Amino acid sequence: MRYTQLRSFHAVAETESVTVAASRLNVSQPTLTTQIRQLEEEYSVELFIRSGRNIRLTDAGRHLQQITRRMLADEADARHFLSESRELRTGHLRVGAVGPFHATEMLVAFHARYPDIEISVSIGNSNIVLQNLLEFQSDVAVLAYVEDDKRLWSSQYSKDRIVAFGRRDHPLFASDRDCIRIAELDDQAMVVREHGSNTRRASDAAMAKANVHPRIVMEIGSREAVREAVASGVGVGFVSSAEYIGDDRIRSLPVIDAEIYNYAHVVCRQDRKQSRLISAFLDVTLPLCKS
Question: Which domains does the chain have, with CATH numbers?
């Protein structure tokens, strides 16, 4: 088994295309195909199912893909360590985040310190962001909720109250009110985030504890879409106070008798915490923690 064979396998596994993979590696398609065939024949294992021009991973191929992702992430770390000077002047930081708010202030600070580092950000719910981190698809993550997982290192960055919000003409959000009680949400039409969202997790837990049962009329996988649905009068919503963007149509109020909070944590893989790039990010962001 040679490194070039694993690299060729990984390129095809990630792109699901021999043509794209060959172009990415700057080799011919026959060369790429031969390298993968040799790998399969050497170990008597089928890594891809081929049907015409379509190609997809077998179970064995998917397991090997996880290994090559770690291998290439380690290779990238080695390149950073060997090629960079004490001050980072090159590199690519991949950040996953559940929202742009806290992540943006971290990245602005990091960019000011290391302006030559390329930064890419992917936004998703907690489950997706965590999966990408564990699968080496991102270097660091900004998560609301962190599982008790020995593979992860984390530090709390902030704690923000989750507030209820609704249209200004909704009785619960009348101009003479400065708060609502959680019992008032019982049987209320409600617009919620998808399962996997920490706002959903925290608000569901608070209502269950208070034996409050709203009517879920819409579930949406985007805080912006939740906001528009609430502003259109579909129902009441929950949002982190740090992420609330008001306008003339809606109003937010604290739930006075329930402790509902959203948290932000900086997270990385425990086995990559000492990576030059990741440790530089942590050195910049941890002093900014508000917790």
Answer: 3-66 (1.10.10.10), 82-157+263-288 (3.40.190.10), 160-262 (3.40.190.10)
